[in-house]
Structure formats: C-alpha cells, structure tokens
Write the structure tokens for this entry.
Amino acid sequence: MVSAAKIRSIDFFRKTPRDLTEASLSGAGISIIAAIFIIFLFGMELHSYLTISTSTAIIIDKSSIEDTVRIDLNISFPVLSCEFASVDVSDVLGTNRLNITKTIRKYSINRHLEGSGTQEFDVVPITYGIKHDEMVEETYGEGSLVLNSHNFDKLIHEHPIVVVNFFAPWCHWSRLLRPAWEKAAKVMRQRYNPEHDGRIIVGCVDCTQEPDLCQKHHIQGYPSIRIYRKGADDVWNNNLGMNVHETYYGDRDTDSLVMKLDSLVSSIGINYAIVKHVPQEGCRIEGFVWVKKVPGNLVITASSRSHSFDASRMNMSHVISTFSFGSAITPMMMSAMKRLGPYLGVGHNRLNGQTYVTYPRGDPANVTIEHYLQVVKTEVAGVSQKWIENYEYTAHTSLIHAPSIPAAKFHLEFSPMQVLITENSKPFSHFITNLCAIIGGVFTVAGILDSILYNTCKLAKKIDLGKNY
C-alpha cells in the first residue's frame, strides 16, 4: 500500500513548464514548421488512402472444356470476291464449321476498300448439289460464240442480253458444263438468230487463252456464268472498268439453262431492278464467331463445291480493322482497366489497323498469310465495379507458299494460365489512425525541440551574466 506521506508528496497541480508558457522566437518558428510538416504529411497520407493498390496473381484457368470465346472481326480483302469468300473454324477436338453465314456479313468493296453502299452481299442461293446433264453425247458441237478481248466489249454494248461462260479446260466443273452449255446455245441460236433477232448472245471465254480479259472481269472460280445487259453500265454510272453484271448460280443441265435464257429474253425492256448492286472485286467480312478455348484455326479462303480455282491467281492480301477476343470492351471499362494497370488493354486488339499485302508479281504463287496468336485471359476484380474479363494476345505473321488454295489463317493457342488482378482498398479506420499518429508525433517532436532550444538559450544567458548554474 502507498503510505500517506508518499501521497502527500505527489504534486497533482504541478506548474506548466516555463518553456511552454513563455513566448519565444524559436518556439514560433518550430510551431510554424510543425504545422507545415503536418499539412504535408496529411496530404501524403490522403493521397496514399485514395490511391488504388492492386495485386497480381498467375493462376490456372478454370474454364471448362465446353466454354467458348467470341471473336469479333472486321477484315477487308481487296481482291477476294464475296461470291466465294468463306469463313471456316476448326479445332483439335474435331470441330469443323465451314462457310459460317449466321453471324458473318459480307459487303462488296473495290481495291481501295470502298463499298458501293451499305447493302449486304446476297448469299449464293444454290451452293451444293448443282444438277448437270446425266447423259453426255459424244458429239455436241459448238453453239456458243467464242469471245475474246477484241469482240467482248463490242458485243455486250450491241445486244440486249449477253450470257458468257468463263471457263478453264482443265476444270472438272467446266467440262461437266460444256455439253449442256453448247446445246443450250444452239437452241438460242435457232430461236433468236443473232443475225436477224439478236436479242440474246450466248458466248464463252477460255480463261487460259484470255487471262487478261478474265482478270479484268475478276474471274476467280470456274465456271462463272455471267449475264450482261445492254445499258446497265449507263444506268449505274459505272466507271469501275468491270462491267455491271448478274451471276447465274442455278442448275447446269440443258433444260435449266434454256429456261433461264428464255426468261432473260422475256425480261428485256422491263427494268434493271434485277441488277441489285454494282459488282466489286473485293469483300469486307465482318461479324463474330464462337470458338472453344483449345488450339484451333480460323480460316478465310475461297470455297465452293461447284467451282474450281486457279490458286496461282488468288491473292489473299487483307486489312484488319478489328480482331479481338471476348466481350466488347466499352470505353468506360477500358478506362477502369487503365486505372488499375497502365499496361492492360495493350494486347486486346493488337492486329487492329494492320495491313498484310502480297504482290503476285513479286511473290511466288499460292501465298497463304498465317497469323499465329497466343491468347491469355485476364480478369480484373475492381472494388466499385464487377469483374472485367479481357483477352489479350500476341501475334506473329508469316507468308507460307503452299500447294493448296491460298488463305488467311489465324492459328489460335489459348494459354492454360490466366492473370488475376485484384483491386485492394485501404480501410478508413487505418487512415484515421495514421492521421492521429502524424499529428501526435509531430507535436511531440516539436515540443522536444522547443524545450531543448529554450533551455539552451536560458543557459547561455546565465553564462553571459556570470552566474553559475
């Protein structure tokens, strides 16, 4: 127990130290410096509290084998016709989807990537199972007029209807068509004599003998049956160098051809509404496809089950406007990602705006452009917003000289790992605790310094007066 004497010796009303009650120049200076220092530390602590900190982790991608990823694309091919352009998807699990049209749109463009409007290219009505003559006579003769670069333009401007079969002798489908074509041409000669009637001319062009003429009309698949109407170029004010035409996609037997040719004669003088758009030699492909998160390929090439292609004349040059994985990233989402990490979003659309061109005269034939993409999933967990899922990728491109039909290939390789970025916020209690510690600490240090300076000055004055302490 504490004795009564000790209790009486404790001074509960001790006087305040004189260094805290007497004004001095040094004390004023220390107080001002302490206040400035407190304001500075308060600003630093407030900045630290408001600054977002993130933690990054590399984890295993837990996506199931059935999960799919959306690929948005917008690619322009200056010299690939929409008539034959095909978007195919395949992967190592056996998925093989050919000529996707449900989520893909095609627009005709010219070599300068300019379209004739916003009208979508019509899907070819008949692609598979085109009928040919079953019994081919050994001698069917020649009924069609042979066209070349000297008489082609003259004939299509003189006759109301000119129907031309662009073919190649080596082509299997051209050989199947030729008997029916010649027989149908003979029937048209008998019904509409070119010398007396002349309403319709049925001709043919051998593209191995007239390569420049076929190139001018951008013939890519054999056989190509085109219909030219007198005056169509004037109606459309066409200055493309390639005449306005329609393309016949129907059956190729004699009866079907004769029926079609008769209907063309009947339509003379009605109107040009059947010519739906000015033909262009290029194609812009846009839309999206779904792929599984396994190694696979997205291929864009020329494809048809009723045409043959001269691979040496195919050019797969293209301009990529959009190529991205995952859901569309809005500007607000991209801003949030940049706030969490300046490096995020750099590889989201790495191929956008890139141009890949092959020059037929400089490069060997059959040039395939291959893009090798390695895709990594990145998930961002913010405090104020829900999770953001982003896919970034690296891209490497090479030119491959293959014996098959040229293509634009995108090899897809999805990483088994993913990046997880989490936003961490500081609690308000932590901010208040640090703020109190700053204020108390600065005032304590300021008091110690003021006491030292006060006692030092007091001791110096006593020495000057000759007094002993």
Summary: Residues 272-277 have pLDDT under 50 and may be disordered. The chain has ten helices and 19 strands. The radius of gyration is 41 Å. Residues 312 and 365 are 5 Å apart (CA to CA).
